[in-house]
Design brief:
The protein is about 45% helix and about 10% strand. It has helices at about 10-30, 110-120, 130-135, 140-155, 155-165, 175-190, 200-210, 230-235, and strands spanning about 45-50, 55-60, 75-80, 215, 225-230. The strands form 2 sheets. A 3-stranded antiparallel β-sheet has the order 3-5-4, covered by helices on one side. A two-stranded antiparallel ribbon has the order 1-2.
Length: about 240
């Protein structure tokens, strides 16, 4: 029989918090209107192009206050750099204690989910903050772009979906493009798994800058804890 280590107090607290989160989420799902939302035949809205407003979601059915109109798993997401040691990198739950692990998780399930990502990022992650400082590029943008590009090295269709999103047509803040190219060039130099070029990586960063969304913790109690790219919500 294999030896097992007893759980620490922090691990026990994380496990209790995770169970409580799952119960809270299940309760919210039970209260959501069943006739609308992602995954239904009629989500209750459709995308149109308005001559003045641009892309717009137009209701095609009655949507009740608080009704679910879209549920989507992030294509890729990263914690805010300042929050990276206090939230689970698998499910975005706030941990009971701050961790020194570069990719802390709250459960074996989240550890298994993050194993592939941690393996791909091991050459890049320790250098992200220094690269951001040297290039002047936002560290979360570098991290999320690197994650999308690394995933694309495994599944090439992923980056095609990202590049199909709209960007700002070249309308970016002064110095942003130069800083992003510099930062991504440094990141690509550290990547062994990908042959994707700099122009493509910068194109991904442009789509993330245009279409990225803030992420709250799973229960929405602590405000923003990360940023992510949601392909459906960005269409």
């Amino acid at each position: 029989m294999a030896d097992t280590q007893p759980l620490t107090a922090a691990q026990k607290k994380n496990r209790r918090r995770r169970r409580k989160n799952k119960k809270s989420e299940a309760k919210r799902e039970d209260q959501s209107p069943p006739q609308q939302g992602a995954g239904s035949e009629d989500p209750g809205w459709e995308l149109e192009h308005h001559p003045e407003l641009g892309r717009s979601a137009i209701a095609t059915a009655q949507i009740e206050p608080g009704g679910l109109i879209l549920r989507e798993r992030a294509f890729a997401w990263v914690p805010d750099w300042s929050a990276r040691h206090r939230i689970c990198h698998g499910c975005a739950v706030v941990l009971a204690a701050t961790s020194g692990d570069p990719h802390p998780v709250c459960s074996p399930e989240c550890a298994a989910e993050m194993a592939n990502i941690m393996g791909m990022e091991k050459e890049v992650h320790p250098h992200l903050e220094a690269i951001a400082d040297a290039s002047g590029c936002d560290v979360e943008l570098l991290w999320l772009t690197a994650r999308v590009v690394l995933n694309a090295a495994v599944a090439a269709e992923g980056v095609e979906k990202v590049l199909s999103l709209a960007d700002q047509g070249g309308s970016f803040p002064d110095g942003w493009m130069a800083a992003t190219r510099d930062g991504m060039a440094r990141v690509l130099d550290l990547m062994e798994q990908t042959e994707l070029g700099l122009d493509l990586a910068v194109g991904v960063a442009c789509r993330i800058y245009t279409n990225g969304h803030a992420i709250q913790d799973r229960l929405g109690k602590y405000g923003r804890v990360g940023c992510g790219l949601f392909l459906g919500a960005s269409m």
